[in-house]
Amino acid sequence: MCKEANFSGVETIFSEMSETGFIPDKYVYTSWIAGLCRQGNLVEAFRLKNKMVKEGISPDLFTYSSLIFGLASKGLMVEAQQVFDDMLKRGITPDRHVFGILIRGYYDEGNDVAILGLHDEMRKRGLVITGGKGDGEH
Fold this sequence. Notes:
Distance between the termini: 37 Å
Oligomer: single chain
Structural class: mainly alpha
Family: Belongs to the PPR family. P subfamily.
CATH topology: Serine Threonine Protein Phosphatase 5, Tetratricopeptide repeat
Keywords: Repeat
Number of strands: 0
Protein name: Putative pentatricopeptide
InterPro entries: PPR_rpt, TPR-like_helical_dom_sf
Strand content: under 5%
Number of domains: 1
């Protein structure tokens, strides 16, 4: 459903939902944010994330990975890194998927230093498999 939906007018839709007594939860917000990010509508995605926080709902790993994906897809790696850093500050532990999004983004812009830094961070977090049959790291 989210892949086909029109995500413009998020505020209107959320107002209508509230009027009918439906209170959006973390999953509704995050699904909507993910759809907006897939469409490249980052302004609305961040507006909705801010509304989510204002409503007292904390973004989770999926919320952050969606925002990072949206930014990285547009080549906005400085902003993607800022969202990643904010995620870490809030105590949310990144997984391989989030690191993969960042690594692909940095690869696309040719930033080998950032890629190596992320690889080191993954290793520190135990997200890199090492020591296979004498052929080095994998």
